[in-house]
Specification:
single chain; alpha/beta; 6-stranded parallel sheet
């Protein structure tokens, strides 16, 4: 996850923005995937050409959390992860505006005049091929072009073809992760899918069969967790890269009920209880199974480890 960071100014509402002339883009940017980065690169280039600030306007909670059943919405990024990913892109400003039902009822014309023009001092807006806005998302690119003529700002649309012939989307990435297709998800993201959590004490069964695990507890309920199964993972502890295997599931062999996330790190025996650790997911190995005995489970884990070591030998991470 190491990369160059730029200085990103973060604002917690539209009204707190400094009203500098801006080239902006609007969206949830869940995943900050390679399709998003095409748009962000264009925003940065145009802002430099027009001597403006580059601005990303996004919302939290995610609009679907407010307008639909929030418990069913799972996102690729927590808000802190999104900030971290956007900080790597070179965007000047990130506005995370609180989304609520009152804001959702703002008419398109009011949104453009009071927010884009008066608050954000917009000179140009760059949006994806499917952007809609305003109350009930009734306004589209054609409406935005008309508003641009009225208020003297440019509108540029990036087509699906420009982003990618197969139109990479956050939804496709979520589906790939839920299906265990981690390599495809990582290709679309442009980085390894990851999550962060606190290491907590578990039942320590792994220790008794020779595979001690770190149990990871993720605080954000809306973070998308991959399907139950066994994965190859990577982490970093005190600037030391460590690899291992992760099991997500209910541990049916010992009649477990609640979903757990357990990581067995290779060649690592430090006490990391209560530490926050980030796990990058490299590959899906297999589904979770109920074995006829703990010994059979142990034998399978040994096979999983052998597979993982071979995979890592033939890969560059």
């Amino acid at each position: 996850m190491q990369s160059k960071y730029f200085f990103l100014k973060t604002f917690t509402s539209i009204s707190s923005y400094n009203k500098a002339k801006s080239v902006i883009t609007i969206g949830t940017f869940d995943g900050v995937h390679i399709g998003h980065k095409k748009i962000l690169e264009r925003v940065i280039n145009c802002s430099q050409q027009l001597d403006c600030q580059s601005v990303v306007l996004t919302f939290f909670p995610h609009p679907r959390m407010v307008l639909q059943d929030s418990s069913s919405i799972k996102l690729l990024n927590t808000i802190n992860e999104k900030i971290m990913l956007l900080e790597k892109t070179g965007i000047d400003n990130l506005i995370i505006h609180p989304f609520n039902k009152e804001f959702s009822r703002l008419a398109a014309a009011d949104f453009v005049k009071t927010i884009l023009v008066e608050q954000l001092n917009i000179q140009k807006i760059i949006i994806g091929h499917d952007h809609r806005f305003g109350r009930n998302r009734t306004a589209d690119i054609n409406d935005l072009i008309e508003f641009g003529k009225e208020f003297n700002f440019e509108v540029e649309q990036i087509s699906a073809q420009e982003i990618n012939e197969i139109a990479i989307s956050s939804t496709k990435i979520r589906n790939a992760i839920l299906q265990g297709n981690i390599s495809l998800a990582n290709d679309y993201l442009g980085y390894n899918y990851f999550f962060s959590g606190t290491v907590i004490k578990g039942q320590q069964l792994g220790r008794t069969i020779g595979f001690p695990t770190a149990n990871i507890q993720i605080e954000e309920e809306y973070k998308l967790i991959p399907k139950n199964g066994v994965y190859i993972v990577k982490s970093n502890h005190n600037n030391h890269v460590i690899f291992g295997m992760m099991n997500i599931g209910t541990r049916p062999t010992i009649n477990g009920e609640n979903q757990t996330i357990e990581v067995n790190f290779f060649d690592f025996d430090k006490d990391i209880y209560n530490e926050t650790i980030t796990i990058e997911i490299l590959e899906f190995i297999r589904d979770e199974h109920k074995f006829e005995s703990v010994e059979a489970l142990k034998n399978q884990i040994q096979k999983d480890k052998k597979f993982t070591i071979e995979f890592l030998k033939n890969s560059i991470f």
